[in-house]
Every structure is written in C-alpha cells, then in structure tokens.
Specification:
- The structure holds two protein chains of two kinds.
- Chain A is an alpha+beta fold.
- Chain A has 23 helices and 48 strands.
- Chain A has a six-stranded mixed beta sheet with strand order 39-40-41-38-32-42, with helices on both faces. In chain A, strands 43-46-45-44-47-48 form a six-stranded antiparallel β-barrel. In chain A, strands 2-1-7-5-6 form a five-stranded mixed beta sheet.
- The N and C termini of chain A lie far apart (about 80 Å).
- By secondary structure, chain B is an alpha+beta fold.
- Chain B has one helix and three strands; from the N terminus they run H-E-E-E.
- The chains are: A alpha+beta, B alpha+beta.
Chain lengths: ~950, ~70
C-alpha cells in the first residue's frame, strides 16, 4: 500500500486542453481498490485513475505480468476492471461516476504483490497450447485444474445476489444505417439525410468524431462543423456509446446500445435499406521485448490521454513511429510538458529493440545501440482495418502490401457501401468528400432515387510494414501469447492461421483480435516464410463487441395473457404463476386443503388457457382420425373422446379431449401450452397435404372462459344454475358434452370429463360472462362447501389419478408407447401422423416407459428429475412428477424408467440430489387413486 | 413428400423426416405466414442471394407438401 500512495499522489492532470471532454466544474470521488480517487465529469475510469498517477490496472492472464493502459479505448486489454458487482468492465471506455467502487480483478492477493507473477519465472514451460498439453491428464484432476485456472483467470467475480438490470430490445427501420461516427461516417449521414433518407448513425464511443476528437485545432474545427451539420438534420438519429455488432442477411443489423437511462443495454435490431460501413482504423501494437510493460502505449492512446482527458501520460518519452500520426502524438506530448527523450522514425531507418523495466518501462534500447531512460514509450506502427461488417456482407478484404494493411476487396453488394479510413487515407477533406459521396449513394440506393454517383477515389497511403522488432514480445495481450509461442506452434505444425489461433488462443481473448490479428498473421507469415497475403487472415466474426446475455434475451416482446376471471383471483389472494404466456393462480393459500375440498365437496378451477379449437366441416372426422393415434370415425353427437397426438416421429405432442357438438361441428381442447402449436400443426396438414378436405379451424381460446367444476358435489352445484340441460347421470354420462344455459348465460358448453379424477364438469362460458358465472357458482354453492382451487391442487390431483402432462411426464423423445398409452394407439388404423414410427416402437419393446412409482418411505417426496439408477450406478430413468398426496397419506410419483424395470412391483433405486439412494416400487397403474375411475363416473 | 405409410421402410421414412435437401442455389420451399394470415405458400428462393423468384399457393390439385 505504501507504494500505491507514492504513485497515486502524483497528479498527472494537465491544464485545460482545447478538445478536452471533461468538465472541471463537476468533480467527484470514487474508490479504486479501496483508496479514494478523484475524477471529473467526462472521465473514463482509467483516465481518472491515470490522472491520479495510477499506471497498473490489471495482471495478465497467464504470466500475471502487470498491465497498464495500451489503447485507452473500449478494446484496451489491460483495463478490464470490476465495478461494484459487475465484472469485466471496459474501464478505459466506461465513464467513472461518483461513488463508484472499482477493483482490479485477477490480481490476487494484490495488484502490486502478485503471487501469480511467479509464473513468469516458469514462463518457458507455459508455452503454446499449454492447456492442451498440461491440463489434459490425468482426467481425475480436472476439478483441481479448473479451480486453479479460475483463480488465475481474469474473470472478475460474479456476485450471486447482484441486482439485475433491465434489458431492452428495439426494432428500427432506417433507410440508411451508418456504422461509425468519425468524419466520413458523419459526412455520409449528412449526405444521406440530404437526399431524403432517414438515417441511423451509430458510434462506439461516447461522442461523434472519431480521430478528430483527439486531433489538433484544425481537426477540432472540422469536427465542430460536422457535428453541427448532423445536429441540424432531424432525420439523423445518433446512437453513441453503441456498437454495430453484426450485419446479417439483407442488412439486418444488430446494434448494441449502452449508457441509456434505466436500461443496462438495449439491442437494436435494424433493417436498413442501405448500410454505410465507416469503422475507421484501429491502431496496431508493435511486437518487441517488453511491449506489455506499463508505460508502453499506442500513439492514439497518448493523444487521447492528453487531448481528451488532459492527462499527462508520463514524464519522459521515447516515440517510435512509422507514420505522421506518431509525430503528431510527439507534438502533443511536447505541448503537454512531457520531455521527449527521442523520436525514432522507422521511415528513416530508426529501430526499436526492446523496453526494459521492473513493473513499468524504465528504459528503451534502440537499433543504434543507445539505451534511453524513460517512463513512457509511444509506438505508432500502423493500422488494422476492422473488416467485420465487410466480411459479413460477403466481401473478402485484400491485403495491400504497400499500405501494410487490409483494404476492402470490392465484393460488396449494392446496398452496402464503405467509406473512411478503412478505404484509404488522405487529408480530412478527402475523407469527408468520400463519406459524403458514399452517403449520397446510400441514400439514393435506399430511396431508389437519383443517378448513380461517382465516388471519389480514396487510396491507402504507403506505410512501412512494422510488425515485429528483432526481439520477441507479446502478440495477444488478453491471452498472454507471445511471438515466440506462435513461432513454436507453427513449428509444431500449426501453420494455418485458423489452427494456430485455436491452438494458442491468440486473438481469442476479450479484445477478439482487434489488436492482435494482423500481428499474429505477420508472425506466422514470418515463421513459415510466406507473405501476409498468402497467409491470409482469420475471418472476423460477430459480435464486434461482447453482448451480455441480458441484451440478447432482452425484454420479451410477448403478450401476457389473463383470464377474464383474473380480477377475482387477485382479490382473493391467488399466488400467481407464469404458465407460458398466461398468468394463472397457483393456489389461494393452501393447495393441500384445496385438494381435500375437491375430493370431499366441490371446487372450481379457472382453466381458460386451455387450447380450444372450433372445427367445422364434413371432413373433420377424417382430420381427427389422422391427427390422433386413436380411432375417431364413430363419435356420436354429444360424445367426447380423449385423444393423443404424436408428431411424425412418433413423439407425444399433445393431448386433450374433442367433442362432437353437432352436425359437422367438433370442438377440440388441447393443452394450454400446446394450443398454438396444435393449431399450426392442423393448418399444416390441411393446407399442404389434405388440401381437398373441407375443414375450418378457428381458435376459441379467448372466446370462452373455462371453468372446471370438480368434486362429488359438482353436479348438485351446477344443477342449481342450469335448467335446460338434464345433468342426471343417465342423461349426461361421463365423456359426454352438452350445450346449454348457465346462470342465464346461453351458449355454454358443458363437458363431463375430469383431469382431477373426480366427478366434474368443464364449462366453456362466453368470455365476457366468465367472471359472472364464476362468481355465481361460488355464491350458489356456499352451502356445498365450494371453493376455488389452483394449478398446484390440480397437479396433485391429476398425479393421484396418474394423468400425464405432456412435456412434464414426457420429453422431446418420448413416443406414445413409452408414455404408457399402449391401449390408445390403434396400429390397425390405415394411417395417422406418426404411425410408422409407433409401429416400430411397438415392435422394439425397448426404450423408456412411464410408470407410477411410490417411494418406500411414504413421507419422502423425491425432487422432480431425480435419477433412477441401477446397482452399478447406470441411469435407468428419472422421476417426472412427484408430490405428497394427503388423500393417500403418502408420496406419489410418475417416472420414466427403462422398459425392463416397468413391471408392476419392480423395486428401483431413486438417487436424490444429496447422493442418497432410496427404494421405490413401480405401481400397477399410473393412477395411485381410484384406478377404476368410479369417482369419475359417479 | 410424405411417403405412403403402408409398408414404408425405416430408411425411407427417416429420409422424409430428417433429410432435407439444402442446395446452394434455387430451391422450392414451403413458407408459413405465422404472425399474419396463417397461409402456407411455396416460394422459389435462391439460398445464396436470397432472391425470391416466384411464390404460389398450394392449389386444391396439389396433393402433398414438397420439401417442407
């Protein structure tokens, strides 16, 4: 800590700079590893820390070398920090705020004294592919290896109790989307707007401007003009702190938007008529010994620090450059009061050999043998073209040897244009003119107007090919892969860039190759004696920046559905449960008591979400015969049948009852969750295969409220409200349907069916009267003990009765015989969906079987999904449903078990999550209660 | 195309279930307007350029879904 104080106290903040983005009137404090730091509004976490003299922000992944800032951008590999409970924050991009709690990650036990740094001493043993070689065997040690690796990996810490943010999605349909808000991008947006297009302009940083932001006075003047032009056009929507993460078919463009109020991240899905790719260029690091020492920075990083944040990057600098931008950085440093020890220009033969220092750069060795003391080494060795969007649009970028970088390959579709630094270099006027032309062309293309435009030529400037010095250094800062590692891997035979990348993990870290790709290719080219063009590059793949899973999931744009009886449920303490799109009552306080009341008296459950399909037409019987595995041709008017549907692979898809309401009129009920899938399934057959069949299908889910009146007194209750239907058992038998008037509401369907296993009537009431009928049933049945019951009570009762739930007691491979529904499947029918597979399943007699199961310990309810295991610990099945049945005074289950264990009376072992094995016995029926169904038929 | 179920062999049935041709070029597909009119239709689409050359309804003379 003493050392921390020493470096932390020296203020590196400069006087006001012409382009600074900080507001010196708004100061605040935050903490870094517990110590108080100061920042100004506009500072990033790292710029504020650098202003306070901090130079080390993390430890490298493999060797735990100290790392400082390198690029001072989002992609800075050394600046991943923990902010509050959020790990891996890009701290050179994220703005600091008052009270922020910032910590280093991957620096156990402390940033300055790091046990892991001992790895450096054995570094030569941690060569390329070290995971594959070192940690593969023996396999039993993997848990240990994982713990060790986790400790050393720069993952930050996830707080299990952290507050979850809101994530959002948005759909946008701009005429033109401009990816990149630098000078060319801004000019393109303005030009596109001027031909009448609606434009979305997306910029990764916090403000528009690109490299103009940290340029000189002339740059700032152009910047101000361009910003004013953008601002003056309301048809340009500007998204800053946002990244285009990918371009998909027909300009389907994903934009990740950050920094919004109330929302952590938002994923914008934009369909643009034309896309302008203007990402600019990324400055490339140089490979040499000591290139990852804190104090070695890119020229753009130095310029950003000085010009944007008014931070002095060091006291005494050496600048190594291959271009004029490096010279401009040197000028900025001089103006900032940094002593320029030497400016080395590669174009006139200057050579950088290595940087030395303990924990930070202390001296630099040059090609002429001189050793220069300094605390800052600035390199400007060229550019990497971020070609992601070009790759994704179908272009193959080409390596331009003269410019030592990749350029667009000319293979873009008409609706994708490219402009700016990725195309070529030139004075600012040339970039703006090119952007302007590209924007006009994009606007015309989007609006299908105007004449084809001549886009001026923009050529990349010659640049010396500077990739690696005579010494070896780090190529991938995120993954700690050195040029020596890459050469060794190439010698081992990993001499294709895609193989090399996977073997060494170079380019696979958090910066995803933006800094490393070209150097990796260059080192490989050198090792194999090929040119860079011959070696090729790895294809840039989306996403351009990491996207949180939250943003991908977003806020689900799905309707939430309520039954018309919902107000009553809410008023009566129903505990809500999410069931697909529906919010339903799980229970009203005590599900076991609700079961008891249904078994003794009478209960009501709101089953409105049930799938309900009205089927009309002369060919409905043919359709039913085809859809269900059982027979349907002879079903009298007024009768109801249970049916099971399988898909063409024989897997159980849905079940439900269908009733014959009248001539050419049937009504099908499906599971709540399967409602829309079944409707689509029926439409598929009717529209694509049985196109001559005359059947109309209409969904009635929201047309009717559905109430199941269940229990021994249900008939008595319903009879009080129905006078036009004879409810007597001989007139209205089990598995029949009637239409009549309930509580004065005509057109209600009444079904004598029972999922609960009790005498019960399922009534479908026109939705607008659902609440009314529900309330009438409750008030009329008070003396009968009527009460509501929820989903949980229904689940207990259906389990007591052994009724399976598709999707719970079956899964994506459970065929009908495995579901134990042998008696239902009529293989003698000529045809039905899934018949061949079911015939084969029947012949095989293998696979799994759904069985009833009772644990020997009547009080033990095994958690659902507990495994059923054999003596030698092989998985033989699993518990699919388990509840305690108060009716039976014991625990009851349904389970999928191997066919050979399905015989009634077989004892099986259930493995509990704590590892215990408990015995359970297969029962004769699925039903644990009343297998004969005498209650139902009462 | 769904093979007749009488006497069908597993290999043929599973070709129908799982093996779809996915040429790089022109192909006829069955599309379903799920969030709209719920109509199925055929579309001739180029899988490389995504160009759609023609669409047509399933006619009443049409017996089976090709390449669903």
């Amino acid at each position: 800590m003493a050392r921390a104080r020493r470096t932390g106290t020296a203020s590196m903040r400069l006087g006001p700079q012409p382009g600074e983005v900080i507001d010196r009137n708004l100061a605040y404090s935050f903490t870094f590893n517990g110590a108080e730091c100061r920042g100004f509004e506009g500072d990033t976490i790292v710029s504020a820390l650098a202003a306070g003299g901090e130079r080390v922000f993390s430890r490298s992944f493999k060797y735990h070398r100290p790392r400082g800032l390198l690029t001072a951008t989002f992609h800075d590999p050394g600046c991943l920090l923990q902010v509050g409970d959020e790990p891996n924050v890009r701290a050179a991009h994220r703005k600091a705020t008052s009270g922020m709690v910032v910590r280093t990650q991957n620096a156990w036990p402390s940033l300055r004294f790091d046990m892991g740094a001992a790895n450096q001493l054995v570094g030569r043993f941690i060569g390329a592919g070290f995971y594959y070689k070192t940690f593969m065997k023996p396999q039993r040690l993997w848990p240990t290896y994982e713990k060790v690796l986790q400790r050393f990996a720069s993952g930050g810490r996830i707080a299990p109790g952290c507050v979850h943010g809101e994530y959002d999605k948005r759909y946008a349909h701009p005429d033109v989307l401009v990816a990149g808000g630098g000078p060319a991008g801004m000019a393109a947006a303005v030009a596109a707007a001027d031909v009448g297009a609606d434009v979305m302009l997306v910029e990764e940083e916090h403000e528009l401007g690109g490299h103009l932001r940290f340029g000189g006075v002339a740059d700032l003047r152009v910047l101000a003009e361009l910003r004013a032009a953008v601002r003056a056009r309301p048809s340009i929507e500007v998204l800053v702190d946002s990244a285009v993460t990918g371009r998909y078919e027909e300009n389907w463009i994903a934009v990740l938007q950050r920094g919004l109020p109330h929302v952590t991240e938002r994923l914008v899905k934009a369909r643009a008529k034309a896309l302008v790719v203007a990402p600019g260029l990324i400055e490339r690091p140089y490979v040499f010994a000591g290139n990852d020492l804190p104090g070695v920075v890119l020229s753009t990083a130095a310029r950003r620090l000085v010009n944007l944040y008014a931070v002095k990057p060091g006291q005494r600098a050496v600048v190594f450059t291959g271009n004029d931008d490096g010279l401009e950085a040197a000028e900025d440093l001089g103006r900032a009061g940094v002593e320029l020890a030497r400016v080395v220009d590669a174009r006139s033969g200057g050579e950088l050999i290595r940087a030395r220092g303990k924990g930070r750069v202390e001296s630099v060795e040059l090609g002429d043998g001189s050793k220069i003391g300094c605390d800052l080494l600035v390199t400007a060795v060229g550019w990497t073209a971020p070609t992601l969007l070009l790759n994704m649009a179908g272009d193959t970028p080409r390596y331009d040897e003269r410019a030592a970088r990749f350029v667009p390959g000319g293979g873009l579709p008409d609706d994708v244009l490219v402009t700016g630094g990725i195309v070529g270099d030139g004075p600012i006027e040339a970039l703006v003119a090119h952007g302007h032309a590209a924007g006009s062309a994009a606007g015309n293309r989007a609006l299908q107007t105007g004449e084809p435009l001549e886009i001026p030529l923009l050529e990349p400037a010659p640049h010396p090919a500077l990739f690696r010095a005579r010494t070896h250094g780090i190529v991938d800062y995120s993954e700690d892969v050195s040029s020596k590692d890459l050469i060794a891997a190439a010698r081992e035979g990993y001499d294709s860039v895609e193989l090399l990348k996977r073997y060494t993990t170079a380019t696979m870290g958090p910066s995803q190759g933006k800094l490393e790709t070209i150097n990796t290719v260059a080192v490989l080219a050198e090792a194999t004696g090929r040119t860079i063009a011959e070696t090729g590059t790895t294809v840039w793949r989306p996403p351009y920046v990491p996207i949180t899973l939250g943003a991908l999931a977003g806020r689900i744009l799905e309707p939430v559905r309520y039954s018309p009886i919902q107000p009553w449920h809410e008023a009566h303490g129903a505990k809500p449960i999410v069931a697909g799109q529906w919010i339903r009552p799980e229970h009203y306080g005590d599900p076991a008591a609700e079961v008891w009341n249904v078994r003794q008296n009478v209960g009501l459950i709101d089953v409105t979400p049930l799938g309900k399909l009205d089927l009309r037409g002369p060919d409905v019987p043919k359709l039913l015969n085809f859809l269900y595995v059982n027979k349907w041709s002879k079903l009298d008017v007024g009768s109801v049948r249970y049916g099971l549907m399988c898909s063409e692979d024989g897997v159980v898809m849905d079940d439900g009852v269908t009733g014959h309401l009248g001539p050419d009129h049937y009504f099908m009920s499906t599971t709540s969750s399967g409602a829309s899938a079944v409707q689509e399934w029926i439409e598929t057959w009717l529209q694509t295969t049985f196109t001559s069949w005359r059947v109309h299908v209409t969904s009635m889910v929201s047309a009717y409220a559905s109430i199941n009146v269940a229990g021994p007194r249900s008939r008595e209750l319903l009879a009080r409200l129905v006078d036009d239907v004879d409810l007597a058992p001989e007139a209205f038998a089990y598995m029949q349907v009637r239409t009549g008037t309930i509580a004065g509401v005509p057109g209600c369907h009444m079904w004598r069916i029972g999922f609960t296993g009790e005498l019960s009537f399922e009534v479908h009431v026109p939705a607008g009267y659902g609440l009314f009928v529900w309330e009438r049933l409750l008030s009329e049945g008070r003396d009968l003990g009527v009460g509501p019951f929820g989903l949980e009570a229904q689940r207990i009762m259906r389990l007591e009765k052994g009724h399976l739930i598709v999707g719970q007691d079956t899964d994506g491979v459970t065929q009908a015989f495995s579901a134990g529904l042998d008696l239902l499947v009529k293989l003698d029918k000529e045809d039905f969906a899934g018949k061949p597979e079911l015939a084969w399943e029947h012949a095989r007699e293998d696979g799994m079987r759904l069985v009833g199961l009772q644990p020997a310990d009547a009080n033990l309810v095994p958690p659902e999904a507990s495994q059923i295991v054999s003596g030698d610990n092989m998985i033989e099945g699993r518990i699919t449903s388990a509840r305690f049945s108060r009716t039976l005074g014991r625990s009851i289950c349904l389970a999928l078990v191997s066919a050979r264990l399905a015989e009634a009376g077989t004892s099986v072992a259930v493995k509990l999550p704590d590892g215990r094995r408990v015995p359970a016995t297969v029962t004769e029926h699925h039903a644990h209660l009343d297998p004969e169904g005498s209650r139902l038929r009462g | 195309m769904r093979p007749p179920v009488a006497g069908v062999e597993p290999a043929e049935w599973r070709r129908y279930l799982y093996e779809k041709r996915n040429p790089a070029g022109w192909t006829t597909e069955t599309w379903y307007h799920a969030s709209g009119c719920r109509k199925f239709f055929h579309a001739e689409r180029h899988t490389v350029t995504n160009e759609v050359r023609s669409t047509r309804r399933f006619g009443s003379d049409h017996v089976a879904g090709e390449e669903t």
